[in-house]
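Researcher: Sequence recovery benchmark, item below. Answer with residues only.
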């Protein structure tokens, strides 16, 4: 073999070696992060600084991602084990995150809203499988060629299988005109999203749709004759003692002092500190990690028939049963971890990210809220918790 022009051959080898080295370094780095976070959580739990652990490690990871504040609630043995806040509600004022600091839950609003919708099913006011238009009086889903043979139902809306448009919403800053829910459904006036329509065959496949949850919100309003925040207060939030949670949009002035300021991926503050989401069922919940943990615990307890404060075991079983795809239930996602299946949902509003996760039978899980659009930090935190507390599949 001639060595007169070895560069093309050797360059490919070197490139491959560099990629392998980078990959191995990344794997080693991630492993170290997970192990250190696991130690950090054990340290948080028993309030001691153990030899070999760095009490500043968690704040260091927050700085890496540019996350001002974190709130975490850990669930163990079907109850909340601890709740902790880290960092600040607002970079400027450096007010500490507490157990009662309010964060926007983003799409974690959906499973909580689904609880309310399923309660109305149990009360006989809604039906999971009937034509959704039978319950809509203020607005109707426009029929077209896709709805000729099969109609949109509440079940299909809850599991993102109704063929509905509009993935998500960016909300409205405090200086903008905020549209009504009907405006949003029609994509008119000051709405910053497209009209919510059927453009795929209902029941054929999964496609994530925040638009479908706007339809659910309108259904719940129409059958009850009440505002959506009032419905959710009465059916879900108050019964579960989620006393710091509300779907009110905008947040009342009396509660603004509790509210964290959101920060974008660039590190810049969300315009107006936080956005307004009239798409309440899809993205409008203000809450705390403790309150979300109470919600997760109720799902677990209802499945075990320990309690049925809001829903019966039958309804919660349906919620955690796969629908149009193996990974989606009614308002919740089903996440495999090796041989285990967890229920979970994540969220993203402008300046905020969130996650809830729970094991359906083993009684552990967590709720995490941050005031920045940096979900990778949440992934690290969940992995650290899973390792620290020896969750199955982690």
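Model:
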């Amino acid at each position: 073999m001639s060595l007169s022009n070895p560069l093309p051959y050797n360059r490919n080898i070197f490139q491959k070696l560099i990629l392998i080295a980078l990959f191995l370094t990344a794997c080693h780095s991630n492993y170290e992060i997970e192990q250190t976070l696991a130690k950090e959580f054990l340290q948080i739990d028993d309030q001691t600084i153990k030899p070999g652990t760095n009490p500043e490690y968690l704040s260091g990871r927050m700085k890496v991602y540019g996350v001002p504040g974190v709130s975490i609630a850990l669930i163990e043995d079907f109850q909340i084990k601890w709740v902790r806040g880290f960092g600040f509600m607002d970079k400027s004022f450096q007010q500490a995150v507490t157990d009662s600091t309010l964060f926007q839950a983003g799409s974690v609003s959906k499973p909580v809203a689904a609880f309310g919708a399923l309660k109305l099913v149990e009360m006989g006011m809604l039906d999971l499988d009937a034509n959704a238009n039978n319950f809509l009086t203020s607005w109707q889903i426009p029929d077209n060629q896709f709805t000729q043979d099969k109609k949109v139902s509440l079940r299909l809306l809850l599991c993102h299988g109704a063929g509905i448009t509009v993935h998500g919403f960016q909300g409205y800053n405090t200086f903008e005109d905020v549209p009504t829910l009907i405006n949003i459904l029609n994509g008119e006036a000051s709405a910053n999203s497209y009209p919510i329509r059927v453009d795929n065959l209902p029941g054929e496949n999964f496609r994530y749709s925040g638009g479908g949850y706007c339809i659910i919100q309108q259904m719940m309003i129409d059958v009850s004759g009440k505002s959506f925040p009032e419905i959710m207060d009465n059916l879900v939030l108050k019964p579960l003692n989620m006393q710091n949670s509300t779907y009110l949009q905008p947040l009342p002035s009396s509660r603004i002092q509790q509210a964290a300021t959101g920060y974008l991926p660039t590190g810049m503050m969300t315009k107006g500190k936080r956005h307004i989401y009239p798409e309440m069922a899809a993205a409008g919940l203000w809450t705390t990690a403790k309150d979300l943990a109470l919600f997760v615990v109720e799902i677990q307890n209802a499945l075990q028939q320990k309690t049925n404060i809001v829903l019966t075991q039958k309804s919660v079983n349906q919620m955690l049963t796969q629908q149009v795809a193996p990974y989606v239930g009614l308002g919740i996602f089903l996440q495999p971890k090796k041989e285990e299946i967890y229920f979970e949902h994540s969220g993203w509003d402008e300046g905020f990210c969130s996650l809830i996760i729970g094991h359906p039978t083993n009684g552990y899980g967590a709720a995490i809220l941050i005031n920045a659009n940096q979900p990778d930090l949440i992934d690290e935190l969940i992995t650290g918790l899973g390792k620290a507390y020896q969750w199955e599949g982690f």
